[in-house]
Design brief:
The chain has one domain (2-198). The strands form two sheets. It has an eight-stranded antiparallel β-sheet with strand order 3-2-1-4-5-6-10-9. A two-stranded antiparallel ribbon has the order 7-8. By secondary structure, it is of the alpha+beta class. The termini are far apart. It has helices spanning 2-52, 87-95, 100-113, and strands spanning 55-59, 66-72, 77-83, 115-125, 128-138, 151-157, 180-181, 184-185, 187-188, 193-198.
Length: 202
């Protein structure tokens, strides 16, 4: 009886995990379609600000009121933490010549979309500069019974990418191996946008 009960329990757990994985992937596509306007706004505003001074931005709390700002230089990364109502935030933005109105728009778009982290990665292929933007999203639909809090990370490339029949991102050199980012396999939403489900936001 105990063995039979254990087998049923194991089957139940496996089924729940499979359903959770499937529903999470479905959620990702649904989320992207529903928030594409906010995502496009984030990308546009972030890239404009990034040209002035490279930075990454984090929304640190579930109340969406505390920011983590990483400002990049050639040799040093400055890390700041602010509440949205702190005057030091405006002082810092002015110091690095980041437009306050554009920065506020970026934060609002991140809040609307549940985005917790945005950053940019520059890289080279055959000496040609390319880039991708990372965006991490926390959403209550990704948590539930038997699931710890999950994030999904969007990798938004500056041009179309290669992928296999299952939509998994492929290596740009041999076109057969998976191209892993931070050791994760990313899956296609469209030709330029790929996602991975993760336990951490970055």
């Amino acid at each position: 009886m105990i063995r039979k009960l254990s087998a049923h329990t194991a089957l139940f757990l496996i089924t729940c995990l499979a359903v959770a994985c499937s529903s999470s992937r479905h959620f990702t596509h649904t989320y992207y379609e529903g928030h594409q306007q906010h995502i496009n706004s984030m990308l546009s505003t972030y890239e404009q600000l990034y040209k002035v001074h490279p930075f990454s931005l984090e929304i640190k709390d579930k109340g969406l009121t505390r920011l983590g700002l990483e400002l990049h230089t050639d040799s040093i990364r400055y890390i700041y933490s602010f509440r949205l109502d702190e005057p030091y935030l405006i002082d810092t933005l002015e110091k690095y010549r980041l437009d306050i109105k554009q920065f506020s728009q970026l934060v609002r778009s991140m809040q609307e979309a549940g985005c917790t982290w945005i950053s940019k990665l520059d890289y080279y292929v055959n000496r040609e500069p390319k880039y991708l933007v990372f965006m991490s999203v926390r959403h209550k639909a990704l948590t539930g019974f038997l699931r710890s809090e999950k994030y999904f990370t969007l990798a938004v490339f500056d041009r179309p990418q290669l992928y296999d029949k299952k939509g998994r991102l492929l290596d740009r050199d041999d076109h057969k191996s998976f191209r892993r980012i931070n050791d994760e396999i990313y899956r296609r939403i469209n030709d330029r946008v790929f996602f991975a489900l993760m336990d951490k936001y970055r």
